[in-house]
Amino acid sequence: MATQSLYQILDIPDYSDITLVKKSFRQLALKYHPDRNKDTSASEKFKTIVKVYEILNNPILKQNYDFRLKNGFDKTEIQLPLEESASDKFKKEYAQKRKHQNEIQEVENITKYEKSLGVIPFIWRIVIIGLVLLTGILNILNDWYQTGNKIALGIILFIISSLFLWNELYKYFWHKSVIKDEEKYSKQAYTIFITVFFVGIFTTFSLIKIKKVWQLQNFGKVIYASVDNERGKCYYTYKNENYFINIYNVQKDLKNKEQILIRISIKEPEIWEYVDEK
Question: What is the pTM of this model?
Answer without folding.
Answer: 0.68
